[in-house]
Amino acid sequence: MTAHRRGAPVEALPRTLSYQRPKGEQLQEILEGVIAALQPGALLPSERLLAERYGVARATVTQAVEGLVSRGLVYRVHGSGSFVAEPKFRQPLTLTSFTEDMHARGMTPGSVVLSQAVVPASEVVARHLALVPGSPVVHLERVRTADGEPMALERTHLPAQRLPGLEAADLTDASLYKLLEREWGVRMADADQWASVVRLASDEAALLQVADDQPALLFQRVTRDQGGTTVEYVRSLYRGDRYEVHTRLERLEG
């Protein structure tokens, strides 16, 4: 858990707001600047002090802070105030495993295996894996951690006939992709991925150790090997307060 620290004094903030722009929008920008200069866990000036300094309604300040909370920049502690949140991780655009991604960030990846068994493929799973419905697939459900903190809930399906014995493999704190390459000679090459924002179910929120109303990023991925054969269909729920999607767009000429 992030240790709470003393933040910037209200006296260090700009003294006035412009009359030409919405006050709530300006407050958010001011607080974003404060957040950028502070460490995670630092205390923000109270809403009462901000309202007094800028001569605005308390509700205006509350709305500005709530906007930062919804973006995962700030978190609240009842009775204590608002604090700078941990920085968000950007989802990479290259095909990497969770283990590889966390290692690249200098963090220790981990896994808590919740379920690991051969089950009949549902119509949705079968369609994504190009199988006949009811075909045996290995179903893996894992909580993925970074430095011991839950980051994502993964539900993975893979064709059981191609990967015999996978349902019994030890995947605790292990990289699935490295295991597939080492034991079955399967090397992942490319994938299609879709991202959307969802609301976590109560049991999912408990596993990720966040509030029930915490939004999450749902990534659905279909992964293929070097021969173009689909090997994996995975649905991953990433904590919305710790992850964001970044894409670079280029305008074509003409």
Helices and strands in order:
Layout (H helix, E strand, L loop, with lengths): L22 H15 L9 H8 L3 H13 L3 E4 L3 E4 L4 E3 L6 H7 L4 E12 L2 H7 L6 E11 L2 E11 L16 H9 L3 E12 L2 H7 L6 E11 L4 E10 L3 E3 L9
Parallel strand pairs: 3-10
Antiparallel strand pairs: 1-2, 4-5, 5-6, 6-9, 7-8, 8-9
Helix pairs in contact: 1-3, 2-3
Quickly list its features:
6-stranded antiparallel beta sheet; 254 residues; 7 helices; 10 strands; alpha+beta; Arc Repressor Mutant, subunit A; two-stranded antiparallel ribbon; single chain; Chorismate lyase
Describe this structure in words.
The chain has 254 residues and is an alpha+beta fold. The protein folds into two domains: 10-84, Winged helix-like DNA-binding domain superfamily/Winged helix DNA-binding domain (Arc Repressor Mutant, subunit A, Orthogonal Bundle); 89-245, Chorismate lyase-like (Chorismate lyase, 3-Layer(aba) Sandwich). Helices cover 26% and strands 32% of the residues. The chain is built from seven helices and ten strands. Strand 5 (136-146) and strand 6 (149-159) form a beta hairpin. The longest helix has 15 residues, at 23-37. 24% of the residues are buried.
Can you summarize this structure?
This protein is an alpha+beta fold.
Strand-pairing-aware structural class: alpha+beta
Mean pLDDT: 84
Q: CATH superfamily of the largest domain, called what?
A: Chorismate lyase-like
Enumerate how many helices there are, as a single number: 7
Number of domains: 2
Q: Based on the structure given, which CATH architecture of the largest domain is correct?
A: 3-Layer(aba) Sandwich
User: How many strand elements?
Assistant: 10
- Report strand %: 25-35%
Secondary-structure element string: HHHEEEHEHEEHEHEEE
CATH class of the largest domain: Alpha Beta
Task: Give Rg in angstroms.
Answer: 22 Å
The global form is elongated
CATH topology of the largest domain: Chorismate lyase
User: Roughly what percent helix?
Assistant: 25-40%
| Biggest β-sheet: strands ordered side by side in the sheet | 4-5-6-9-8-7
